[in-house]
Amino acid sequence: MTHKTEPKKDPSKTAISLELAKIRIDRWLNAMLQIPGFKKNPESIPRALYISFADITAIQEECKNYYNEDTLVGIRVYFGIAGETMPTSATPDDMRGLIVPVLKVNHSAPYTDAVHKDASNPDPNDTNVYDFTSPCPKYCDQQSELYVPVS
Known about the structure:
Elements: H1 11-14, H2 18-32, H3 36-40, E1 48-50, H4 53-63, E2 72-81, E3 95-103, E4 112-113, E5 130-131, E6 134-136
Antiparallel strand pairs: 1-6, 2-3, 3-4, 3-5
């Protein structure tokens, strides 16, 4: 049985204006300011995650070994905090994006996480969960028009 791949989206139809992006970033920053630690130190608010195309491509290539290429439709990023073995509380530098391949399996569950390499034998140590993101504020482009000042 052959599955059709999801049609490519036209980026011009999903792009938003710089003004709207800044409004959304400002709303994020203001929501984070409600957290006492960030209110005291607004420069530590997590702003973004950098993910290289090379890493995304590597996931795609590896997943071809486990899943039909036409069912692999994207990735999902879960937010997490590293530093779990540290005796101190987490810092913004501990922010992580945990990447999981996403499959289009069927109509009832159209976008399913491919957490395990072998779904029929889900070994908790043999996963498709990747942690290679670089968090901002530590790795920020402070010259970017999207680096909105905290208000």
